[in-house]
Design goal:
376 residues
């Protein structure tokens, strides 16, 4: 589980650079057209390293084929809405709104579909993180929030939370998630590609080309590769909470690169957010050890002292046979002769027992009955 947490946090750090990079480039490209370029180029680059023919066939399995369209639609919604929210409200605010929504949505999906109930650590970490995001939303000197931008951020967060759930469901139904990720991204890019023709202004400028390359190769290809590997090792609820590292990264980069000032509430929010991430991450490794505990629990020890074994050790075997010695004439029954031990000759109702006086005359009958039990 630790490797999954590390991969998800690395992906969140990369995705946290999207908003600041978009504002730092300061291009005239429409946000939706920028998202289309990012998805098309990034999805193709990711597919070169991850798509396999056998993996493509797994995407059309009965359960997986229902979740692939969902994955494509929410990927398109996330990219378009998030970049538009950044353009309207700023990097830190848009990222905080978007990824403050993710753990709530992913947690609700996990509860509704799989019955997952977050433990105390998850609830504590999520509450701290969401509270931290709320403090980050407190307007500062450079805040440019508007209602439409906040709404688009919420839609983007709901889309990404659903994408986490879709990825988990695809994996459960046997789909190759390493193949599903680039297919979802490329198909989502095709869905929004009409904006490239509707608003092509500025797309060929050097700054725009540099921005597209970073967004496509760094934050999309590498980011989705890390995310796909990490989300398979943790629960959907934990993955949603770990994604809250992204607004923290965006806030820090906004302060360092864009000159956005952190107010006192925003600084407290960043601290709460970091605390929540630590609370969610550290106990996850402890729970992975606890999961192994049942392997050595009473259920595994039971067969050693269970009724079946007790019957073998306390059954009729210890009772002495009236004629423990081999028969005088072993020729009629040669099979039991090589194993005269009481362990191979138990009988719940030995025929010679009630008549010890006839033990010698009925000698051959004793092994015959014992042979019958050996066959049983």
């Amino acid at each position: 589980m630790a490797s999954g947490i590390a991969a998800l946090l690395a992906a969140a750090v990369l995705w946290g650079t999207v908003g600041p990079a978009q504002l730092l480039a300061d291009t005239d490209v429409a946000p939706v057209a920028l998202g289309a370029c990012r998805m098309l180029l990034g999805g193709l680059a990711l597919g070169v390293f991850t798509v396999r023919r056998a993996g493509l066939r797994t995407l059309w399995r009965p359960g997986a084929r229902l979740w692939m369209p969902v994955s494509i639609l929410v990927t398109a919604a996330f990219q378009a809405c998030f970049l538009e929210a950044v353009d309207r409200t700023g990097a830190a605010l848009a990222t905080a709104v978007t990824f403050g929504t993710v753990p709530v949505v992913s947690g609700l999906w996990a509860r509704g579909l799989d019955g997952e109930r977050g433990g105390a650590a998850w609830w504590c970490g999520t509450v701290c993180s969401v509270a931290g995001v709320g403090l980050l939303l407190v307007p500062g000197e450079a805040a440019r929030a508007d209602a439409a931008g906040v709404f688009l951020g919420v839609v983007a967060g709901a889309g990404f939370g659903t994408y986490i759930t879709a990825t988990k469901r695809l994996a459960r139904h046997g789909a190759d998630t390493a193949t599903a990720a680039p297919v979802s991204v490329v198909c989502a890019g095709v869905l929004v590609s009409p904006w490239l023709f509707a608003a092509p202004d500025g797309i060929t400028e050097p700054r725009a080309v540099t921005l597209v390359c970073w967004l496509a190769l760094g934050t999309t290809a590498l980011g989705y590769l890390l995310f796909t590997r990490g989300v398979a090792r943790v629960s959907a609820a934990t993955a949603g909470t770990l994604s809250l590292a992204e607004p923290l990264v965006a806030t820090v980069l906004g302060f360092v690169l864009l000159g956005e000032r952190l107010s006192l509430p925003a600084a407290c929010g960043a601290g709460l957010l970091l605390t929540g991430l630590v609370v969610v991450s550290l106990p996850a490794r402890g729970r992975s050890r606890d999961d192994a505990a049942p392997r050595t629990g009473p259920a595994d020890a039971a067969p050693q002292t269970g009724p079946a074994d007790a019957a073998q050790h306390t059954g009729p075997a210890p009772n002495p046979d009236p004629a423990p010695n081999p028969p005088l004439d072993p020729a009629p029954n040669p099979a039991p002769a090589p194993s005269p031990s009481p362990a191979r000759r138990p009988s719940p109702a030995p025929a010679p027992a009630p008549h010890p006086a006839r033990g010698r005359a009925a000698g051959p009958a004793g092994p015959a009955s014992g042979g019958g039990h050996a066959k049983g």
